[in-house]
């Protein structure tokens, strides 16, 4: 039990129902924050703390604990510092644009214990805070349509909610989402996902994910090669408005 949350709710006269209404979540979710001590998603955490009149770290001291794998931490630090992130994903919705349920379903595929899944999901949700800070980075995500059409979870509900969330993210001022249609012939994106980061001083970094490690580089030749791949992949993707229309069609298909 999270005693700090329980005491703050009692002092402010908040119930799970009233807190849920103000934050915009299900009352069962709000109840878990006190009863089980679970940490709210990043986008809800500051609002809950404000309603309860407490500091985030007073309520959840572990909120900033490093939960991502050690081999991924240096990229998370780069991600937080970046002024622009451009990435391509072939098989998944990008981590910065995932729902908690989708993240849990995908991470559980290769993670042996529920506790480790919880840690990784929390870390992924925490990364998304960069989209909602006062000066967020520009995030340009190119996604193969296959990522929107392949089911995750037991039924279509999870994918419908994920596609709805992706559409909402695509309307953020700092986010651009482009989709490569399924009927596109083979293209350079088939070689795998990558992310390019631009830092405030103009330096560029690149990340290519592997099954058990990340390749992170500032090598000029490697980045130049990825820049060329990026240009070719973007050329196969739909414009922003047409991509959003396609994402909304995916929502309807999962209904």
Number of helices: 12
**Low confidence ranges:** none
With strands numbered from the N-terminus, the spatial order across the biggest sheet is: 3-2-1-4-5-6
**Number of beta strands:** 6
Map the helices and strands.
Layout: H1 3-12, H2 16-23, H3 27-35, H4 42-52, H5 56-59, H6 73-81, E1 84-89, H7 100-107, H8 114-127, E2 138-144, H9 146-149, H10 156-170, E3 175-180, E4 194-198, E5 204-209, E6 214-217, H11 220-236, H12 240-253
Parallel strand pairs: 1-2, 2-3
Antiparallel strand pairs: 1-4, 4-5, 5-6
Helix pairs in contact: 2-3, 7-8, 10-12
Describe, in plain words, how this protein is organized in 3D:
This protein is an alpha/beta fold and 255 residues long. It is built from 12 helices and 6 strands. It has a 6-stranded mixed beta sheet, sandwiched between helices. A hairpin with a 4-residue loop joins strand 5 and strand 6 (214-217). Helix 10 runs antiparallel to helix 12. It is globular. The model has no long low-confidence stretch (mean pLDDT 89).
Notable characteristics:
alpha/beta; single chain; 255 residues
Compact summary:
48% of the residues lie in helices and 13% in strands. With 255 residues, it is an alpha/beta fold. The protein starts with a helix and ends with a helix.
